Each structure stands twice: as C-alpha cells, then as structure tokens.
Amino acid sequence: MRRHVIAAVAVxxxxxxxxxxxxxxxxxxxxxxxxxxxFDRIFRILIVMGMPVFTFVIxxxxxxxxxxxxxxxxxxxxxxxxxAGLGPRVWLAVTGSLALTVMIFPGLTGLAELQPDKxxxxxxxxxxxxxxxxxxxxxxxxMEYADAGVTVSTAQGKExxxxxxxxxxxxxxxxxxxxSFWIPAFRMKIDAxxxxxxxxxxxxxxxxxxxxxxxxxxxxxxxxxxxxxxMTFPVRVVPRAEFEQWLQSQKPAxxxx
Amino acid sequence: xxxxxxxxxxxxxxxxxxxxxLGLVAIVRGLTGHDAYDEQVSITFxxxxxLIGWLMGVGMWGAWGREWFGLxxxxxxxxxxxxxxxxxxxxxxxxxxxxxxxxxxxxxxGLGAMLMRWELMxxxxxxxxxxxxxxxxxxxxxxxxxxxxxxVVGGLGNYFVPLMIGAEDMAFPRLNALTYWxxxxxxxxxxSTPFLGGIEHGWTAYPPLSVVTDSSQVLFGLAVxxxxxxxxxxxxxxxxxxxxxxxxxxxxxxxPIFVWSMFVTSWMALLYTQGFAVxxxxxxxxxxxxxSFFNAExxxxxxxxxxxxxFYSHPAVYIMVLPGFGIALEVISHFSRKPLFAYRYAVGGxxxxxxxxxxxxxxHMFTSGMPNYLHGPFLVATEAISIPTxxxxxxxxxxxxxxxxxxxxPMLFGLAVxFNFACGGVTGIFLADVPTDIHxxxxxxVVAHFHxxxxxxxxxxxxxxxxxWFPKMTGRMYNEKxxxxxxxxxxxxxxxxxxxxxxxxxxxxxxxxxxxxxxxxNVNLFVSISAFLLGASFIVFVYxxxxxxxxxxxxxxxxxxxxxxxxxxxxxxxxxNFPEPPLVKGHPYDYGVxxxxxxxxxxxxxxxxxxxxxx
Lengths: 257, 615
Ligand code: HEM
Ligand SMILES: [Cu+2]
Ligand SMILES: [Cu+2]
Known about the structure:
The structure holds 2 protein chains of 2 kinds. Chain A is an alpha+beta fold. Chain A has 2 domains: 2-69 and 87-114; 122-256, Cupredoxins -  blue copper proteins (Immunoglobulin-like). Chain A starts with a helix and ends with a helix. In chain A, helix 1 (2-24) runs antiparallel to helix 2 (34-68). Chain A has helices spanning 2-24, 34-68, 87-114, 240-250, 252-256, and strands spanning 69-70, 122-123, 130-137, 140-145, 150-152, 160-163, 167-174, 179-183, 188-192, 198-203, 208-209, 217-220, 232-238. By secondary structure, chain B is an all-alpha fold. Chain B starts with a helix and ends in a 15-residue tail after the last strand. At the A-B interface, helix 2, strand 1, helix 3, strand 2 and strand 9 of A face helix 4, helix 10, helix 11, helix 12 and helix 13 of B. Strand 1 (69-70) of chain A pairs parallel with strand 1 (405-406) of chain B. Bound molecules: protoporphyrin IX containing FE and copper (II) ion (CU) (2 copies).
C-alpha cells in the first residue's frame, strides 16, 4: 500500500510539473488595457492552482488503470474498503478549504475591484476621462463622443478611436434586441440591452489597430440573429494628441467643409 | 401490422385534431372580424388539439381515455418488435423506446454538428448562409439538450430503476407511456422549424430576439413546453416509484447509486422544469397575445426571461450530468470488484448538488447587465458546489484505488466520465470567477467547457450504461473488440476536439457565429477535422449495436458477475420482471465481503446465478 501511494504521488508530481508549463504559455490575444493585464494574470494563477487538482484525478486514474487493471476477468475481489473512516472527512476539509482559498476568496476580491459601485450595471469606475455612448442595433454599432458632439458609425468614421493611457467609460444601450459589447484586446464585455444602460470602464495601455490585429475590434457577443457573426466594428488606439486631432476632424463642422 | 396501425391511427387523429384547432381559430377570428388564419395563433391551437388527437389515436384512448367515460379499457397487444410501436405500459418497452428514439435524435443532431464544423473549417461562408447556419446551430443545440436530459433518465432509468429496486413496474405505467408518446411530436415540431424559416435564437431563445423573429419560434416554444411536461411527469413517476416500490429490505442506505442519481435527478426535473416551460410560454404570449413581458418600451424587461430560463437551465445541467455520475459510479464499483468507496458521502454529494443546484443560476448572467450586487452571492454559491461534486470524485477514486479493475468497455466509459469531468470542472472555475468570465463568456471557451461536461460527463456515461446493460436488455452480447475500438476512437478524438477548442475562445472567437476572423483559420480547421473523426466513431457504435442485437452471441444472465438485482434474473427480463418478489439482505456493493448477498428470491427453488462476491 505504501509503495503504491508513493508511486502514485510521483505520477501526480510529474504530471503537475508538465501541466504547469501551460501557465507559461502565451495563450492570450494582444494586451490593450490594464484590465487585460489583470485577466491574463488571474487566468495564469487559476491555471497554476487548478492544475494540481486536475492532475490529481488524472494521476490516480492512470495509476490504477495501469497497476490494477486487466482485460481478463479478475479472479478475486478487491479489498472491502468502505471508506467510512477519517478519509472522507479529510477530503471534505481539503476540498472545502480549496474552494475558499483558491476560488471564493480571490473571486470576491477580484469582483470588488471590478465593481466599485454595487448598485450600477457594469464594470469599473463610474468616473472616467472620456465617455463614449455606444448604441447597438441589428447589425452594427454607433459610438457617440458626447462631449465633443461626434458620432461614429458604419456610415461615418467607420472606426472607434480611443486615446491611449486613458480611462474610457462606455455607456451601452440597444435599440432592438440584446447585443453584447466586447473588445477582445480589453478582455471585457457587457450586454447591450434595450431599456437599460450598462457600462464598462477600461484603461487603455497600448497602441493598436484592427488592421494589424483583430483583437482590436468590437464584437457582438450575444446572438442577435442573422448577421450576428459579422456585427463587428474596428478599434484603433492612438496617442492622446492624435486622438484630439482625429476628434476635431470628425466634428460635423469639420466634415462639412 | 399492429405497429403501422398504432402509429397511423395516431397520425390520423392527430391530423384531425390539428384541423379542428385551425377551424376553431378560424371561426372565432372570423366572428370577431379578423382574418381566419393567423400563422402563429392557428399553429398554436392546431398543435394543442393535434397533440391530444395524436395521443388518443396512438393508444391512450383505449388504455386510459375510455375510463373517463366509464368504458372498459384495453391495451393493444402487439407481438415481438411491434410492441415498441404501441402505447405500452411495460417500463422495459418504454425504456427501449426512449433509448432508440434518442440515439436517432443524437445522430441527427450530430450530423448538424458536422455541418457546422464544415462551415467553420474556413473563414468566410462556404456551405451555408448566415440564416442557415443559425438554424442548424440552434437545432443541434436544442436536440442535444433534449437527448442529454431524457436519454439516460427516460431510457436507462425507465428500464433499470424498477429492476434495481425489485419492483414489477413503475408506479404509474400509463403516465409512463404518456411521457414517451409526447416525445415524437416534440421531435417533429423541432425538425420542422427549418420549414418556417429556422430558429435564429439558439436553444436559449432570449427575447426580444425570440419575440421578433419568424414564426418557427412558435414551433420551438410549443415543442419545449411539451418536452417540459414529459420531464415533469417522468420525474414525478420516478420519485413515487423509488419512495414506495422498493423491495422489502431495500432501505435508503442500500439503494444502488444509479437509483439514487435518478432520484435526485427526478427531484430536479420536478422542481425546476417549469422554469423553461414558463419562460417560453411567456415568449409565446408576448408573440400571440401582445403581453409585453419582455418589451422594455411597454414596461417589460428582457432580463426577466433570463432569470426564469436559467432557473431551470442551470439545474438542467445537473439533470444531464448526475445520471452520468450515477452510471459511472455504478459501473466503477462492479468493475473494480470493490465496495463503492464512501457510499454515504457520495449520496450526500448528490443531495448537496440538489440543494445548491437551485441557487446558482445567475452565473450564466455575469455579463448580462443584471445589477452588480447580484454577482457576489452567485459567485460564492457556484464555487461552493464544487464541494459536493468533489465527493463524487472521492467515491470514484477511492473505489478504483487498490481495486481489481476489469477493463471492459463499460468500465472504460465509466472511467472516462471521471477523466472528462475533471477537465470540465476545472475549466468551470474560470467561468465561475467573474473577472475571467467577463472575457470568456459567450466564447468557444464556454463551448468547449460545456461539451466537456455534457458530452464528457453524460454522453460518455450513457455509453457506459448502454454497453453495461446491453446484454440485459437484448439477451445478446455486443462485440467487445469493436466496442473497445469505439471507446478509444471516441475518447481520443473527443478530447482533442474540445481541448483545443478552448484556445480560439481565449483568442477572441465568440460562439454562435457563422464566420470568424481569418487569424483563427488554422485552429478551426484542426478542430473541424478532429470533430469529423469524432463523428465517424459513432459509425462503429451503431454497427456494433445493430449487428449484435440481431446476431450477437447469446449472453449469460450475469456476464459481469455483478451483485445488483437486475443481474439476478434472465436476460432479457420476463414481462413481469421477477418470478418471485426479491428480498434484499445486504449492500449492493459488498464485493470482497465473504458470504454477503444483496438480494435473494425466497420463493425460487435455486439461488439465482451470479450473486455474492467474486467466484
Ligand atoms: C459530435 C460532437 C459535437 C460537435 C463537434 C459539436 C459542435 C458544436 C458546435 C460547433 C456548436 C456551436 C457552438 C456555438 O457557436 O455556440 C455546438 C453547440 C452546442 N452543442 Fe454541440 N457538438 C457535438 C456534440 C454535442 C452533444 C453530444 C451535445 C449535448 C448532449 C451538444 C450540445 C450543444 C449545445 C447545447 C450547443 C449550444 C447551441 C446553442 O448555443 O444554442 N453538442 N456544438
Ligand atoms: Cu449579435
Ligand atoms: Cu449553470
């Protein structure tokens, strides 16, 4: 018995060591916001912590199949362990504390950061340096830079332009069915609902544009019918000065000239 | 031809009922000054009357309806295979009716998956247009959900719960027949949605989309409501059967774990299924009666639907997976030749899931725009459910440890359930954690995760059960070589397909899309090819089943030397199940305990074959 335990633990350790390399792998799209940095970090932590749990199951399975398995009918019964002793209680204590420390505690702390405001509908601070009103409709978006009086749509501008190193707050609505406003490079989404304004605030951290990298796109992520899959909108993150210029160039007066 | 007669008369009266419904609508609408025909209203009433007509014609009238008018009831008695086409009260007939029907539905829906993967091989549109893709996607989803909810419960549950508890039949045999015969209309309605334009709202049917889309939605809604009805009635039947019809001596502490899983699943079905039905009824009323439950402009709220819907549809994932766990644990104990480890804790785990399963639904709505303060409680409840689920793993791993593992096909599938669900469970952590879910929600990461849990946990369990009980149900043995081939082929291609599928999700490929960015072309091609291989593995299965059922070698009564009651009687079991009512003495899983037996037949001359520990 002791021999088997030691051998199975060895299998577990080896499998875990192999599995943990997944945490080093670059599985993620381009990082465009500080929220994306958080996501990648938390995702890696979850891999690191979840992997031993996964490999524990796999190690016991493999070990038992290889050591105790046979294709012919076993000639005798196994030992009649019923598992009524201490074992299950230890198991409960371990899984219970894992649930608390690996999942519930980090989950709640992460959530508290995402939702400084408990009464709203959305992610991040409600104050921001730039506010963009987003309206989803079948099957495109309009973006309104309210302070500057600029509106961007498929017909006008054709691009969501944002300044870098800025807290941008999106206020999101829909005029027909439910859509979802998602920018993969920012790792954040929230649904666009008729009759309710949701919001999400991101802090842009890197320059980028859709032409080079499709993680810089608004993608509808809630099935909305016929052209849902192509309900996208290009995103470009530019230096602040360039952003101001661009905004000026989009002003109705400027385009009218 | 009894078979033909039975089904044809059902179709005939069904059609009469349908036109009756249309006629009634036409009269009422005509009298009130509307057009006589309105697609949605007419279909709705035609369907309701047609459904009643179908049931009566197919045999419910003779077996049940006549009683309401003080007439003598009768059953249509058909010989041989033809009885599978009649309204039969025998739980074994009904079990096979369910099983075969849902295998066919499974294959059809699987074909849909193949078509989707064909379209997704390349970026851009090749096979379908957007509309057709959405229709196939939604149909695949709802058909597979139906398979996952009902194939094990309705098929293997119906067949084996009465046998395993030593009962002659289910508590309400006519109700049981009714639950099965409601299924063909559900399938017919769903399969005809493409003719009215195809559903474009997936299997979840969120309004406002489901309120404004074409009238194939009405077919979908009526089908789902009917399906909910069969689940609820079936659940009720199982609960009463398991509470009141156990053999003498079969205490709760000796109940086979598969029966426990059916018991818990049935409670889930009974408690929550109305959520799905009511959600779609509300959509239907929004559509045909202008109720405006979900229309924000006139005071409704689209999010209301999601709460009601997930109130069922989260528990539904446990309705899908608990029977898989039940079969896996059952098989693992018999094929490890060891008692089920920590049996009481495993049962506690199932009950814990039943308790917590009802309070986690809004984890599907973390990005829905529901109020912020709701996220925390649902996050905690969701993570907490890992504790009772862990007990199931404890039971499985504790049982195989130091066991005498007999690696026949049922055992391999049973072990695969544990393997796959470990993966599905760990990826679930990423989705239950709000900071990671807000990127991953509605992406292929989710698609991979739920296929790991549903296919990996439940469909693998279904196959474990089919192989395990095949000799009992048919009296013949399947071909072990082909079965092992099927297992390894399916296991490997399943894991390759769905493990790799997580990655495009992280990269930014959202789900339910007919088209995706070009940068993801390679990985999608890879996943598609692997999915085709997965699809092909079922050809081996179907061939093995059909051939072995007709030509396979005759099976012994108890080829696995298992201890539970169903193995102590001939294969296939006689109509009345037991020559003598069994008497339960010991625990079902007491392998390695000298002299212990689970059940005896006190009146029978000889002790039945295969009882007791390893001979
Ligand atoms: C043969 C293997 C299978 C393959 C290759 C496959 C593939 C797919 C694909 C490509 C989708 C569309 C994903 C999306 O865009 O959301 C999908 C959706 C889905 N599949 Fe499967 N599938 C398979 C088997 C199954 C099985 C066995 C079940 C359940 C028992 C199932 C249940 C579902 C559900 C519920 C959906 C969601 C549909 C919706 O969003 O409305 N699938 N599957
Ligand atoms: Cu959309
Ligand atoms: Cu859920």
